[in-house]
Batch of 2 targets.
Target 1
Amino acid sequence: MKIYTRTSDRGRTRLIDGTEVFKHSDRIKAYGTIDELNSFIGLTVSESTGPYEIAEELRYIQRLLFDCGADLATPKSIRTANEGRIKQCDVEWLEEKIDYYTQLLPPLKSFVLPGGSKAASYLHVARTIARRGEREVVEVLENEIVPPHVLPFINRLSDYLFTMARYMNIVDGVEEHQYKT
């Protein structure tokens, strides 16, 4: 299989069903951002010296992000609203992880300045990429069908990444800085 198709030479790409669309379409932007997020999480894992369990969680999330990208790359012509690779159990898994790590953190009393350890800083950047992806999925939803669990998954993922960034600062022994007016 060749890696190049020459379709992009005309500013177009293909969805899963073979439909050609412009690369600037809302759907392509959304799953492109999900791909960017996946790559950034991979960078985070490669640069982190944190616990093995966290690296495994992040790799699991990378697999879910591939599923999310596939959901976004599958047009309404071959999908109904209830189909999708991302499931409610994936959203619930993120919620359980957020709750678990939140118990290990000091309570939030103000906004947290993004940063801290290298791993925490990478996770904060990943969180902002997830938020952009969330906004782009909402743009797709204005005109097209997206499986029902994609948007909640991306929303919870950004919360997970925020919580994990805070936790990594504790693991790495770096003080978290609060926003003060």
Target 2
Amino acid sequence: MVKFSHVTKKFPDDTIALSDVHFEIPNKQFVFLVGPSGAGKTTILRLIIKDLEPTEGEIFLDDEDVTKIPSSKIHLLRRKIGTIFQDYKLLSDKTVGENVAMVLEAIGKHQAEIDTTVDNILEVVGIGDKKNLFPQQLSGGEMQRTAIARAIVADPEIILADEPTGDLDPKNAWEIIKLLSRINDQSGATVIMATHNTEIVNSLKKRVIRIDRGKIVKDEKQGKYESA
């Protein structure tokens, strides 16, 4: 479960990114965060991984209060979460396989297990034949699949996706969404996706939380992007 309890985030320049935000997302749910640019979607995702601290309120992952986790233990929190970025954040001097393997190396897995797990996860996301290529040799869709593989390789409980289809053409965007939906169905990982893609949101009929000017203005179980 992800729970925001009356969360406000105010930046030093007095910008209020979130104002008294409250919601709960049960385990295994697929949720879209929608709203205009600057509404607060990315702020929510950054608060979940403790990349930002709330000005007021509490944030829970299951029974753990994220706001009280000391900096020395943030890495343990982030092991439960896979994060997918619009700009991929792949290391250009490492191959696809090496970019994905880094996650397992960081948590101390043995090399034999790393090799097997990376091969398996690249097959799952459909780029098993790209393992030895570098990011600059990939298409946008292939780079995003690599980013997804990196996010899910350690079997996270939660997947955060920040505009993962923003730079993709419609065909690749749909392939990425189908992949995330399949991961949600098969692994049971909670998926929280910030997006501007109206067609995808309206077609999937998942839960939609609409944010505008830092406030939740709609929260529908089977929502649409237009629901304002």
